[in-house]
Amino acid sequence: MTEMVFGGGQTAGTAEPVLPRWWRTIDSWGLLAVIGLFGCGLLLALAASPPLATNNGLDPFHYVYRQIFFGSLALATMVLVSMLSPRQVRRLGVLGFLAAFLAVALLPVFGTDFGKGAVRWYSLGFASLQPSEFVKPGFVIFAAWMMAASAEPGGPPGRAISFIVALALIGMLALQPDYGQASLILGSWGLMYFVAGASMTLLIVLAILVAGAGVLAYQTSEHVARRIDGYLSPDIDPSTQIGFATNAIREGGFLGVGIGEGTVKWSLPDAHTDFIIAVAAEEFGLILCLLILFLFATLVLRALMRLVRERDLFIRLAGTGLAVLFGMQALINLGVAVRLLPAKGMTLPFVSYGGSSLLAAGILLGMLFALTRVRPQDGLADAFGL
What CA–CA distance (Å, rounded) separates 50 from 265? Predict the structure, then answer.
């Protein structure tokens, strides 16, 4: 029985080396999907970033080199975090969330907008830092911890606490303004609340309140109204980012116009970040776009399938929140590019250029892999058909 519980043939007194145990217990197919996404990102960086670097007076491959550096750092961070235990993930997530929450709160004082009209970054001189990217995975861990604690006898009102914190965070993000990140926070919290056992009536009430907040934002914010009106308009202004992206996707067809032959990267200032999928569609066609979609779907669905068998409430909630957060960000980015959603400044995780985005995605996926690793109790439960 001891051998069964502690490692499938490993005796209790024999410690299995860390790396073999990590590889045996991690979702290797999900890990390969992440590497595939990063490879697609490097390929698209080679296609999309040289025009921007040239216009800025930099080496043509300046942004490619930075993508390689931050991407490699993100992959290394992901692997290290994935080796943590669920308890260590919870501690890291909560402490990281507190630090990122404070950083978001101080943005109006010390932050900068880099001329883009939204105060979202800290300028570090050699690089910039966007704290909202790091606050998302930390918030998921914090909210899951609170919700799981509230389910215990005599536990705190964790659901209410997590909701209040979510509202505070959403309010700070909306003031930047950064409605895309705010929607991710709200969406991940709502799904975790649903998984934790929220009633449909309460969720409907929350949905009505969100819709009311959207109407209010449309009526009071010129920024929101302009984007919604552009989205609802039957005509697309060809001189806008959406216009350029739509034309690029149309021109790409099934096989694309050819590597290096695309023109959208010369017209879109965010071709290497928010609209990277437009470059993929124009130069490589529908095939590469479908491959990227497949890799995202593989990663998210495999994580959710592993979490279905999980008995620990914190792990189930946190893992579900992280997986859905990652998938939602990808869907919003892709939806904006094909005009299924109003325009939002949001990167495609592990594909778009951006140091903060890559590092935050590495931390998020590291936590997700750590929570979905096969643990001894999983094998014991399966043995007894539980």
Answer: 9
Measure the CA–CA gap between 373 and 124, rounded to whole angstroms: 36
CA-to-CA distance for 350 and 210, rounded, in angstroms?
A: 29
Which residue range is the domain that position 43 belongs to?
Answer: 2-383
Tally the domains of the chain.
Answer: 1
Q: What is the pLDDT of residues 328-365, one digit of tens each?
A: 999 999 988 888 887 777 889 999 988 889 999 999 99
Residue 208: exposed, middle, or buried by beta-carbon count in 10 A (0-12, 13-18, 19+)? exposed
Reduced to 3 states, what is the DSSP secondary structure of residue 123? strand
List, in sequence order, every beta strand (DSSP E) within 45-204.
122-123, 128-129
Which CB contacts under 8 angstroms, 24+ apart, belong to 289-292?
291/36, 291/40, 292/37, 292/40, 292/348, 292/351
Say how far apart CA 348 and CA 345 lie, in whole Å: 10
The DSSP-derived string for 214-282 is: HHHHHHH-HHHHHHHHHHH-SS--TTSHHHHHHHHHHHHTTT-S-TT--SHHHH-TTTTTTTHHHHHHH
DSSP string, 85-100: -HHHHHHHHHHHHHHH
